[in-house]
Amino acid sequence: xxxxxxxxxxxxSADQFAVLAGTTVTSTGNTVLNGxxxxxxxxxxxxxxxxxVNGTTYSAGSVALQAQSDALAxxxxxKTELSFQDLTGIDLGGLTLDAGVRxxxxxxxxxxxxxxxxxxxxxxxxDFQIGSTLTTxxxxxxxxxxGAQADNVHWAVGSSATLGTTTVFFGDIxxxxxxxxxxxxxxxxxxxxxxxxxTLNDNTVTSEKIIAAAVPEPAIGWLxxxxxxxxxxxxxxxxxxxxxxxxxxxxxxxxxxxxxxxAPLTVLVxx
Length: 271
Hints:
This protein is α/β, with parallel strands linked by helices. It has one domain. Helices cover 23% and strands 32% of the residues. The chain has helices spanning 61-80, 208-214, 217-250; strands spanning 17-21, 24-28, 32-34, 36-39, 44-46, 52-54, 57-59, 85-86, 96-97, 100-104, 108-110, 113-117, 126-130, 134-136, 141-145, 153-157, 161-163, 168-170, 172-175, 179-181, 186-188, 191-193, 198-201, 204-206. The radius of gyration is 31 Å and the shape is globular. It starts with 16 loop residues before the first strand and ends in a 21-residue tail after the last helix.
């Protein structure tokens, strides 16, 4: 039986951060961070504006310091879990993986699509231990199916992570060194560089905690119910309209109106 993290053993206060770096955070273009932005022990943050932070920015200070401490504890936990599958030398692209802890002795590569399948369990955990680097090719995707949640996906990286252009990525990435997102790469999860920099380029990064806080679970249920009701009503109206049109088209043709045409008038003239 393999070890797995529980929801209580994630990143602590670091989970509210979209981006947290050890030295600097640099952004180019119209990056959007949905969640907090922080640096500790460094202080340098550049590129906001034009980048936007929909959260609080912490340049050093006690909050960012505590978040880094929590992230380090989470990183150590993820790196020391008991792995049940060694994926060293295997590209993640094309794989469908169920819950569990997996390891790469050295680097990990994603080219294409990897599917994480929770098999109907929304608490299913997907933890990846990566010895050195994590790299994705341009246009790669992490896809969550059957109840998988981004907040339950963790990538503990021994050195640095680089996401290729337009990559769509889910899960928290915690690296010992740096994180680089190339143009248009988007992440749902937290990016944490424990000892290095985070470099962004026209990206969107959304902390899963922000999503959960913005749309509480009951609200999601009511939203889905209202959407289903609206779609059902729209389909019923469309069906009724189609039925009425079909009835009109199939009705027997109306007989033409009878019109009286008088006979020509003959005039008799006496001789």
